[in-house]
Q: What sequence folds into this?
């Protein structure tokens, strides 16, 4: 147990340059406190002491501002930095060496039962305010940008941004998020389809206007000739 506690503190020093000394980390890092409290509540939850587990979890939320359901599985060397507002659902799974920042939600998308929260593979970083929703998997060593809303699986070694989340970097190289096989964005595809339809309609309308103008000019010329012949 003491080995793991020392490991938790060491992780803070490794990932937060603001950490100055051990006493400060032990007393002033709510992300660390939330993880310690979660381990107790998770231990009870696995032994079907559900009410007591939830009570301890609720106490942890009150003390830290971080809500971790006692059923969530959290790996080793996880770091929650500036964790106010972090919410982690019951069936969420967080792999080793992951980092979560303020306002992150690992949530569900409805009232379905069973696995309904995300899985973060090891070494994933989830940025400020990002929402990862549903029973999806974020692959190893991937990054979720601040404010992103991710509702589909993310391959390993990718960076995801936007609403809905789309891959913009894969294996260290920028990618076209609309290229074949790179998680096409259905919203952008719908907008492109609408734009193509509008372009076709505008071209057709212009063609009809040109025909109508030519017909009017022809009729006007015919009227002028007829009037000249009558005079």
A:
């Amino acid at each position: 147990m003491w080995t793991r506690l020392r490991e938790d503190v060491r992780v803070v020093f490794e990932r937060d340059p603001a950490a100055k000394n051990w006493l400060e980390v032990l007393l002033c890092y709510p992300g660390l406190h939330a993880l310690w409290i979660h381990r107790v509540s998770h231990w009870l939850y696995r032994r079907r002491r559900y009410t007591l587990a939830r009570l301890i979890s609720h106490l942890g939320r009150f003390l830290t501002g971080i809500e971790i359901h006692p059923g969530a599985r959290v790996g080793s060397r996880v770091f929650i930095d500036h964790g106010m507002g972090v919410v982690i659902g019951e069936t969420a799974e967080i792999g080793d060496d992951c980092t979560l920042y303020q306002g992150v939600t690992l949530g569900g998308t409805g009232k379905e039962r069973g696995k309904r929260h995300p899985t973060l593979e090891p070494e994933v970083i989830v940025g400020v305010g990002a929402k990862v929703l549903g029973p999806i998997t974020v692959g190893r060593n991937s990054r979720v940008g601040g404010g992103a809303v991710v509702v589909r699986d993310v391959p390993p070694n990718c960076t995801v941004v936007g609403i809905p989340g789309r891959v913009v970097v894969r294996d260290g190289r920028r990618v076209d998020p609309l290229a074949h096989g790179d998680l096409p964005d259905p919203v952008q595809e719908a907008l492109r389809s609408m734009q193509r339809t509008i372009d076709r309609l505008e071209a057709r309308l212009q063609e009809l206007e040109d025909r109508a103008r030519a017909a009017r000019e022809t009729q006007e010329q015919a009227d002028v000739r007829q009037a000249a012949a009558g005079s």
Q: What stands out?
A: The chain has two domains: 2-184, 185-231.
